[in-house]
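ok so i was messing around last nite and threw this chain in just to see what happens. nothing serious, just curious
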Amino acid sequence: MINFLRQKSGAGGLDLLSRLVWDAPAISQEVAAETVAIFPSIKPVQRYFRKEAAIIHDLSPLVTPQFHNADNINHFANRIRSDVEFSDHLFCVSEATLTDVEAYFRKPRSQMSVIRLGCEFEPNELSAGALQVRPDVLVEPYVVVIGTLEPRKNGSLIFDYLMTNPGFASQFRIVFVGRDGWLDEKTRLIKRLDGAGVSADRILFTGFISNEERTALMLNSAFCIYPSFFEGFGLPILEAGALGKTTVCSNSSSMPEVMPEQCVFFDPTEPFEFAQALRTAELRAAQTRASHQSVSDLMNRTASHGWERCYGEIARWVKDQ
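result:
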């Protein structure tokens, strides 16, 4: 963990931790008694280390149970209760998440802090995308809808809009960027097009794609859409904003905290507000369509949104223990 904090990145962490599982001896109670432990998600032990902190990403199974199955809700509720109770400190990824933890578990604010998540792009990702964003290259206008295909992400709102505004799909191709989630959401959404006057080839579902492809799609889009009902943070909003893209974004939960200056907000339960937000985003896209960002421009723009603040806050807490 110390090495990760020093390099301000978790790069290589998965391979390292996988090797440690098999090669490293178990941490003795004597060593644990002198150790500060940070758990990025689940806490497999309780009160084993001298000081323990956990990162809380969201309380979605509790706050929005309608988007989760019963097994997931029960597992999460039983686990998170002990994680919160037996942690000396909690790092919450947003003020909204911190407020939820305080309300549901009565954790004192003095034992919690907010760590803002970061985003980073490899030079090859930005280079591949920037090569396509040139005034002399004609690309069919399209918008990207970011996120896993599942009910909580509220992709059905876009299809509701197309039912009464099919011309939008003629103006912009709609690209859903994200892997398939639960309840076969993609099939359910596609069926909504029947009788709507929108050709199925105007809607593209990419499924799982590489980071390079994902970055290129966001960078070359007219604008992004993030209609989710609930998020602990909403990392795609930050990624899109760091690339200079406007995002038509829900105003619920944590999402207004992420990058409000790059967003056009709407109530995810109000189709009329969504329609207005789309029109505003279209105007912004028309004004910036001819602009070109070099790889150097993109590197400078995205550098300020890295993980320094997140790792720095954790490192300060560790040093104080």
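not much to say yet. Residues 2-118+306-320 form one domain.
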